[in-house]
Amino acid sequence: MPLADHLRELRNRLAKAVLAIVVVTIVSAFFYQDIINFVTKPVLDSVGCSQSLGQLAKTKNAHCAHITVSGLLAPFTLALKVALTAGIVLASPVWLYQLWAFVAPGLHRHEKKYAYAFVGFGFPLFLAGGYIAYHVLPMTARVMIDLTPKGAENLLPAVDLVDLVTRMIIVFGLAFEMPLLLVMLNLTGVLSGRRMLGWWRGMIVGIAAFAAVATPSPDPGTMLALAAPIWALFFIAVAVSLLNDRRKERRAAEGPADDEASELDLTPEDIGEIEPVPAARALPEQSSTDRVNGYDDVT
């Protein structure tokens, strides 16, 4: 299509995606309390100063945190942020489809197949990372709250708590996409399985460093909770890539199938004396410049 038509289609796709996000955000605003309770419940059950937990904390000489909302506009800002985040997440099937519908016409058949596989495996992996983050956060919160000095009270702003939970879920979810990206690079021929296997020492150290930076808690348990699944997924990706490389080598050794075209052999062979190619005969010279019906005799 011409450039103007591409821009027009991009505008329509973006408008549909934004409209879906706005509609879902408005609907989510009516369920704001249920959403925020679901997001913050694991952390509050672990460190929140409810009546029973606060009494237990005093008995064990431990600490708990009071959830606070400061400022007149803070509740509205919190509700808007929660509703918008829920709108983006819950409307993801719509705006992902719009993105795919804009890109798909320019892809080849095998590229579409890889894209389907990436989406099919990528979404469950992202959910798995978010699920782990959702259940690791209470342990992280307990470790951080226990560092509070004696006699001090913890005031935990609700906005900061929601930001922390959202950021952790996104970071864990995206980290789980790394092995899938390696497999896709192997399937497209960019990266071999042997090369990935040679990186295993650096990948173990790099994933551990990433987990230490991504998790807010300094305890090793939280870091291992993120690093261990990614280590396992990395070695699974290496195994899949090695099997794919072996399959490619076996197919190359067997030659093309009956319905496949063989590759042309363009290497020169020694065929002995090469016969000279006769030169083309020159056109006869024009004896005159007269033209018949406007054309010369050669034409």
Q: Biggest β-sheet, characterized?
A: 2 strands, parallel
Helical percentage:
55-70%
What is the CA–CA distance across the termini?
41 Å
Whole-number count of domains: 1
Q: Give the overall shape.
A: flat
Strand content: under 5%
Average pLDDT works out at 77
Low-confidence stretches: 51-59
Number of strands: 2
How do the strands line up in the largest sheet? 1-2
- Class from helix and strand fractions: mainly alpha
Could you spell the SSE succession in H and E letters? HHHEHHHEHHHHH
Computed over alpha carbons, the radius of gyration is: 32 Å
What count of helical segments does DSSP give? Answer: 11
Family: Belongs to the TatC family.
InterPro entries: TatC
Subcellular location: Cell membrane; Membrane
Region (Disordered): 275-299
Written account of the structure:
Residues 51-59 have low confidence and may be disordered. With 299 residues, the chain is mainly alpha-helical. The longest helix is centred in the middle third of the chain and has 37 residues, at 109-145. It has one domain. The radius of gyration is 32 Å and the shape is flat. The relative contact order is 0.09. The chain contains 11 helices and 2 strands; from the N terminus they run αααβαααβααααα. Helix content is 68%, strand content 3%. It has a two-stranded parallel sheet with strand order 1-2.
Features:
3% strand, two-stranded parallel sheet, 299 residues, flat, mainly alpha
Quick rundown:
By secondary structure, the chain is mostly helical. It is built from eleven helices and two strands, in the order αααβαααβααααα. The longest helix has 37 residues, at 109-145.
